[in-house]
Specification:
The chain is of the alpha+beta class. It has 3 domains: 3-292, no CATH class; 297-409, no CATH class; 417-475, no CATH class. It is built from 16 helices and 15 strands. It has helices at residues 53-65, 141-144, 171-187, 221-240, 288-293, 299-308, 313-321, 323-332, 339-356, 370-381, 387-400, 406-409, 417-427, 429-436, 442-456, 463-475, and strands at 3-12, 73-74, 77-80, 90-93, 103-112, 117-130, 134-137, 148-151, 158-164, 199-207, 213-218, 248-253, 258-261, 274-275, 282-283. The protein has an 8-stranded mixed beta sheet. A 3-stranded antiparallel beta sheet has the order 4-3-14, with no helix packed on it. A two-stranded antiparallel ribbon has the order 2-15. Helix 7 crosses helix 9, helix 9 (339-356) crosses helix 11 (387-400) and helix 14 (429-436) runs antiparallel to helix 15. The longest helix is centred in the middle third of the chain and has 20 residues, at 221-240. It starts with a strand and ends in a 6-residue tail after the last helix. Bound molecules: zinc ion.
Amino acid sequence: MHVKIGLEVHVQLTESRTKLFCGCKANYRGMKPNTNVCPVCLGLPGALPVPQKDPLILGIASSIVMNCRLPGKVVFTRKHYFYPDLPKNYQITQYKGYGTPICLGGSLRYLDPDEWEWREVRISRINLEEDPGRSVYEEGGIMRSKYVLIDLNRSGVPLLEIVTEPVLKSAREARRFVEALLLTLEYIGVTNPRLEGAFRADANVSIYGGERVEIKNIGSTLDLEKAINYEILRQEKLIEFGGKVIRETRHWDPIKGVTRPLRHKEEESEYLYMPEPDIPPVPIEPLMKEAMARLKETPWRRFEELSSMGIPREQAWSLIQTRPALELLLMAIPLGGDPILLAKLIAIDLKGELKKAGRNLYHRDNWPSPKTLAQISKLIDVGSINYDYVKLNVIPKLASNPILSLEEILPKGKANPKKLAIIAVNLSRKAVKDYLKGRKRALEYIVGVGVSMALSKGLSIDPREIRNEILKLLKSNKINI
Ligand SMILES: [Zn+2]
């Protein structure tokens, strides 16, 4: 292939309780500016960073889930640069020249839902590092704002910098990889990728073995795909018209849909990397047990488990994407629900209704209880209600009010099976013909029509009774087709 893509994905450890080197919160969202700070993350003189347990455990767990070679000790490095939102004038990160990163040489195995193929992308390394603060531009953004506001709530938040080998071959593949990476890290409790600013990606793109161009700070997986596609096209056109691709850093403009050259970026040597003198190396061994405890569940193991139950892959995929849906299924099965029936009901009908109603799919309270779903499954199983009725009448009600009980939703009063049989037969001419020609299965269709008729009027019906009445009619020769 003529396209080579390598990625650097920065993922915030939003699920850590603390920042990397102090006890301030890792999830600063919704807080007033500069309230989630202390002398350490403000970079005040004399304040010493102390590596915190939570981010270290999450970093180690991430490395294990990506089959990494772990170092014996975590060693931190200083990277110097000046920027208003970096009060210390250096960032504490990791660098392979000075002690090893938290992961060296791993891989992520995941399912690509475009081709339904398992892929394995090699990870070159993972660094554990601190996020800088935020520069906030009021009125008109960076170009027009008269001043810059500095918010240090984010300063010191733990980040993983995940660097892949340049092995991805298309923009789509790059996007799928990042989605798989974020899903994996979400499952082991490292990050919540839906939080604003929880990740950003840089992409290195080269074609025909030429110079690589780095696109910085892409904030969504959709933008990642667009930015890489744009960059491939730009480089192709450049070569086609006799130009040469130069090594440079570009910025993705999501509004205009183009990449543009960025200011000159420091060379590696300009960062003056040096071992962090304030933090002694941290041994990994004492943290391994807690890190391992995080790894009970991965989306890929769950996918295989659902597939082995006979659940179609599209539905299994849909379920692992939305964890509350997956958990609902896994809780409803032991209560007597049928896995295949429930998977379809949850992954297609219920999820669809919730989406239509604009509900947040990741909020557990928006989903009905496992008990209600197991009950529905059993009622369908014994033939008391049929699937279409549930889909059309029960699911929309549960989607708008998940705490409704089935007793409140299901019909009251009984339908008259004789009358209903006549209506069902009259409405099912083709099925009646088929049945009379000897296709016995056509009977089920006619019964289904009768049951739906009753339910649509809010009445219950025993499918066996209506089946008997229909059979009587079919055998009586009174039918004119
Ligand atoms: Zn702090």
